[in-house]
Amino acid sequence: MGGSVMNAVKLTKREAEIAELLAWGATKKDVANRLFVSERTVENHTRNIYEKTGVTKINELSAWWFCTTFNISFDLSPLKRSAIATCLLLLVLFQMVMNGESIIRASRSARTIRTTRVARRRSEIEDATFYMNI
After folding, report:
1. Is residue 111 assigned to a domain?
2. Rounded to the nearest 5 degrees, what angle is found at the Cα of 12, between the Cα atoms of 33 and 20?
3. Which of 13, 48, 97, 119 has the most CB atoms at less than 10 Å from its CB?
4. Residue 43 forms part of a structural domain
5. Is 1 in a helix, a strand, or coil?
6. What average pLDDT score do residues 17-46 get?
7. Count of domains in the chain?
8. Total-model pTM
9. How far is it, in rounded angstroms, from Cα 23 to Cα 19?
């Protein structure tokens, strides 16, 4: 998409709201709950957004939204794109840290759950073996 296509797209106010929420990573269900509409309504608006912007995937919509919102040209060199992507990644990571979110914590809890299940199974097997030997 060139710069002229970016400026030619006109989204309704509701489509713009939905596009922004989706660009920031919200699911369609999250968007529906936040805007007090049904998921089906969000899907219809998303379909209209895709048609108007010419994108086919949520990550393309996210890139389109950030480029149009922050006036970033789609025709940037790979070096400039990498620098901008790094800045946006740092912004998201900073926001996650400030909100107390942690990807590592989720992985640890999954590991803990698995370890607990394995230990429980071993205990059950040992108990069964003990009662079989009596």
Report:
1. no
2. 50
3. 48
4. yes
5. coil
6. 95
7. 1
8. 0.55
9. 6
